[in-house]
Design goal:
The complex is a heterodimer of chains A (223) and B (94).
Chain A: E1 3-6, E2 11-14, H1 17-30, E3 32-35, H2 41-54, E4 56-60, E5 69-73, H3 77-86, H4 89-99, E6 106-114, E7 132-139, E8 146-147, E9 149-154, E10 158-164, E11 171-175, E12 180-184, E13 187-188, E14 193-201
Antiparallel strand pairs in A: 1-2, 3-11, 4-5, 5-6, 6-14, 7-11, 7-14, 8-13, 9-10, 9-12
Chain B: E1 10-12, E2 16-21, E3 24-29, E4 35-37, H1 40-52, H2 55-65, H3 70-86, E5 90-92
Antiparallel strand pairs in B: 1-5, 2-3, 3-4
Classes of the chains: A alpha+beta (223), B alpha+beta (94).
Chain lengths: 223, 94
Amino acid sequence: MTMIRLGFKQTSIRASAIDLERMRACFERDHAVVLPELLEPDVLAFAVRQVEVDGFEERVHDQLSSRPVDLRLKPGVASAAFMLLTNDAPFLEFVRSVTGLRDIRSFRGVIHRRVPNAGHDDAWHNDLVDSRLAVLSINLSAEPYDGGVLQIREVPGRIVYEFANTRPGDAVLFALGDGLEHRVTPPEGRVARTVCAGWFRSEAVRPSMGLADSNATKLLQTP
Amino acid sequence: MTEVSLQTAVRASDDVVVRELDGEAVLLNLASGMYFGLDSVGTRLWQLIERHRRLSAIVAAMCDEFDAPAATIEQDVLRLVTELVEKGLVVVAQ
């Protein structure tokens, strides 16, 4: 049984070579693989609480022709914490193993929210810019939501994968490629869909990336 | 002013998330919202805090690893640990 957990203290991975091979085969076949309970419970509880403290602002996706709108978390502690957790070396190596993408060197994500019946929407796109190699979406919602289905299609139009990542703390890792596009259907019901979604990239992480105003201090000089 | 001596033992605060990015530690205090970067020597000190806790053992380990006078290393370790305690990144272990 494969187990991968992002915790505040460490990233825990329990997966045999056979487990990893199965996940890799799933990723190749479906263009996606689900990572159940990726977040340890205290990390999920922190995220659910902290995003309300940090607050959201409206975001317009100008790069898409239909210019869909949703909410983006303002820079703060929650974004910084997820930047650290998702760039942990063991986790990046796990993702390299599952995807076969050896060029992955970092993850850059955004916490965003789509509220049912608020006009928040998405459109088909491929994300093939800015050294992006694969996508991770982690559910940070306070409770399960309805709708919000991830769909992947092979251009020009056949949908080959659908997954509703509705359980808080679960994640889905999926592929980018020339012949692939994806979108997420609008949330339904009463619960907002809040996720940390972003891209594994070939560029190295820089500590200033994704963090709020830098206060990094060089605390010790070499003797 | 926090009093820190070689006999002091410290541990990482429960509020701190630490990860190494490209070989250098980044420390995020979830309670204060502040984050800090450590250079390679500071990162080594952090690793030794997690292993040894007591500053006398940490200084001894660093004296083995770094080509610098023991008094200089001791002074720098005490200064940095004091700063880490004041910023809530490590706490004095009981």
